[in-house]
Amino acid sequence: MKTPFRSQNTATSRPSTSLSQHTTSHYQHSATPGRRSRAASSVWGGEQHQVICAISESRGISPTVGLALVNISTNEAILSQICDTQFFFKTITKLQVYHPCNILMCDTSSTRAQRSRLLSVLEHDDQLHNVQVHYLDREYWSETAGVEYIQTLAFKADLEAIKVAIQGHFFATCAFAAVIKFVEASCQLSIASHTLRVRYQPSEHTMMIDASTIHSLELIQNLHNPKSKDSLFGLLNETVTPMGSRLLRSTILQPSTQVESVLNPRYEAVQELAMKEDVFFEVRKALKGFIDVEKLLTSLVIVPHEPCIAASEMAIDNVLAIKSFIMAVGPLYESLMAVRSSLLVRIRDLCRPEMVHPVIELIRETINDDVISMKTPIDRRNQRSYAVRTGVNGLLDVARQTYKEGTEDIYQLVDEINNTHETDAEVKFDDRRGFWLRLRRADFDDKPIPDVLINMTTKGPWIECQTMSLVQLSNRVADSHSEIVILSDRLIQELINKILEHVPSLFRICEGISLLDMLAAFCQTAAARDYARPEMSDTLALKHARHPICERVHPDRFVPNDVFANQQHRFQIITGCNMSGKSTYIRMVALIQVMAQMGSFVPAEYAAVPIVHQLFVRMSTDDSIEANMSTFSLEMREMAFILRNVDQSTLAIIDELGRGTSTRDGLAIAVAISEALLQSGSTVWFATHFQQLARILGSRPGVLNLHLGTKVEDMSKEQAKMTMLYKVNSGPVQVTRYGLNLARAIGLPQRFVDVADTVAQQLEAESTSRKQQCESQKLSKRRRLILNLHETLSQLRTTDMDGDALRSYLEGLQEAFVLRMEAINSNGHSES
Fold it and tell me: Which GO MF terms does the UniProt record name (predicted)?
């Protein structure tokens, strides 16, 4: 099998090269935005994000894996050290969630003698097929260098907390050293001191959700239409800022397991926003004034090594955008003045005036008060030209005067063209062509186009063109603008260096804004759809619960249901007719669990949920042609994965297990897997058409049989009617031949249904006959066994054995008789 990873330098090809030599060319090919596909289940989402991950691992029975992920698009670094299993479930799940574009590993991982088992697992993971692996020399994996990078790059206020968090986490620290080296040498980027958002993220504080579960539950993307909003992310994404949207995505994929520090404060904040409508509307209004602040701040602190005019222009744009961001913080702070919940108060404190006042003063010293960030090309150019205050630099003021006169000459030239040639040309501008003219095609239906016009293109009803004089003036103005940018650059860079000292506090404000945006989105959804605040409990209890996505699609037709599960009812078998709602019911349970551990209200009248640390869903019934695997093969592979990782803190949703093979084998496998899941102590919802499974396991401790109700009418007639009640009832399904009934009800030609009905009756008759024959055989064998016993006892009457020998023989005869009778009663077989 061809490996999906490509390596620049393996130990078997070239033993050692410098970091820049063996990564630079690769990075230019693979890490450019838009050159690779991005998994829909990624935390950050979107192909524009560049995420690089370094992996350092120990060797042993229980391997320890250190991860360091850097998102150079949002200036985030996440460190994690995981005590994993031989199957690396936690590590693979982490990588699937963050989906890096490049993975860095030590070059010794690829040698034949010491080949990493994790590398082998990565190579065969379908979710990471676009990721490329680089092998770096051992010298770049240094704990000392990792600690130094943290001290140099992390926020000063966070240093002590980070040092405590990484203490003893050797592998995570080594991975951080390698990933920073890669960013600096291969990506040709520099990170300003004390501006990187470094976080240590323990894997035990979030619910583990694998990629198959994300796909099956439609957490991020709809199964049938990727552009549809009919997914959990589409349902809850009422955010108004890009930062809030990214945090929502991350929270869906990594729900929290911390009740007191995370979930309860979120519930209280959402409840307060829902109760105080005026505060909610003011907050939403204030949030709409924010752009993508995370990327804006990142562009300040992560800059390319080689400066240029474009970089200088971008620096001016960034400063103006920072100004707009700072000015928008004040209204948000005012909107939160009346809040009382602890989380909203903390967010408000992050936005208090003294947090942004120093930055405002710095900007006012250099930037004109009336200059703001603009969107159109000509407005952006003008704002760049007049951004720096007048009088700061004499040469800059002269260049501005030249720029102003050149612009006025352009407009005067256009007026002359219009007067001379009796046209109505409009002046337009874009960054590629500079200044150009736009005229109506209809104006030249009865007269020729003037010869003075050049570079003409036609777009719809318009003619876009230039004149030679206009091109010359446009170039002159562009030169003046470039001179202004160059003269402004020193002052702008000095201002940016001063702002960098306040970047940690600005990032914290940004994080508070994203959290507030997500909470407001939860409130918006809860108020619009009548969701309830969940309670944390040891049992799962839902009253009138609804499937959030189905309710959105069919708000008037969805039937709510009750749900209850505890240790005495932890394995629930759901049976019912096709289309009765079994899959919808069990998916509803999983989605509500995810929503509750996000901090969101849930679609129910009352909800009490436990904390779940792992969520597994086995629902797909599709073949995988690419992997050369059938439905049954995929099913068994996914179930093997679940059985290896399931425990008492797991919620497992299993749908139609075993139907990809023969009925007898499928039932046997379903029974065996159900037994294993029962022994694990996990909470399981098991939807199946195997009615025998409900009878076999019905008496086991922890098992509860349920079914989805169906109303059957006039099944003997051609005008058959079958009504799905979508209501959960106790016990296994009682309707027989519901497949035939449904086929008749949905309009399958009657002659085919009659033939199928006749075959079903014959099969039932044969089964009944076999049972009767079996009972008859058992009766005959019992009689034969009793007659043999009678004959043996009759012979013993005349025996000459002594008392002890006779007693011993009778005891053996009794034991043999009981064993043979039990064998006959159990399976009808016994030796005569």
Answer: ATP binding; ATP-dependent DNA damage sensor activity; mismatched DNA binding
Write out pLDDT tens, residues 340-376: 999 999 999 999 999 999 999 999 999 998 888 888 8
What is the distance between the alpha carbons of residues 721 and 743, in angstroms, rounded to a whole number? Answer: 10
Within 10 A of 392 (CB to CB), how many other CB atoms are there? 13
pLDDT greater at residue 487 or residue 621: 487
% of the chain at pLDDT higher than 90: 47
Rounded to whole angstroms, the Cα distance separating 241 from 290 reads 7
Burial class (CB in 10 A: 0-12, 13-18, 19+), 527: middle
Crossing angle (nearest 10°) for helices 293-301 and 242-253 = 100
Q: For residue 328, which of 475, 512, 133, 79 has the smallest C-alpha distance?
A: 512
**Token code pair at residue 386:** 């007049």
CB 81 within 8 A of CB 65: yes
pTM above 0.85, yes or no: no
- Residue 617 is inside which H or E element, if any? strand 614-618
Say which CATH class 397-480 falls into.
mainly alpha
- The predicted-structure confidence for 42-58, as pLDDT tens digits, reads as follows 666 655 678 999 999 88
Topology of domain 19-205, CATH: Nucleotidyltransferase; domain 5 (3.30.420)
731: alpha, beta or left? (left if phi > 0; alpha if psi -120 to 50): left
Which CATH number applies to 232-302+317-367+503-528: 1.10.1420.10, 3.40.50.11540, 1.10.10.10, 3.40.50.300? 1.10.1420.10
Q: What are the tens digits of pLDDT across the range 81-105?
A: 888 877 788 888 888 888 888 899 9
Strand runs (DSSP E) across 214-332, as ranges?
302-304
d(CA 560, CA 727): 8
Q: How far apart are CA 754 and CA 446, in angstroms?
A: 78
Measured between alpha carbons, how far is 135 from 137 in angstroms, rounded to an integer? 7
User: How far apart, in whole angstroms, are the C-alpha atoms of residue 452 and residue 438?
Assistant: 14
Averaged pLDDT for residues 427-445: 92
Question: What pLDDT shows up at residue 773?
Answer: 66
Distance CA 616, CA 631 (A): 18
| Residue among 73, 26, 69, 12 at smallest CA distance from 48 | 73
CATH number of the 535-748 domain: 3.40.50.300
Going from the C-alpha of 461 to that of each of 438, 439, 440, the distances in angstroms are 10, 9, 6
Q: Which residue has the tokens 């720096």?
A: 388
CA 176 to chain centre: 24
Say if CB 587 and CB 581 are below 8 A apart.
Answer: no
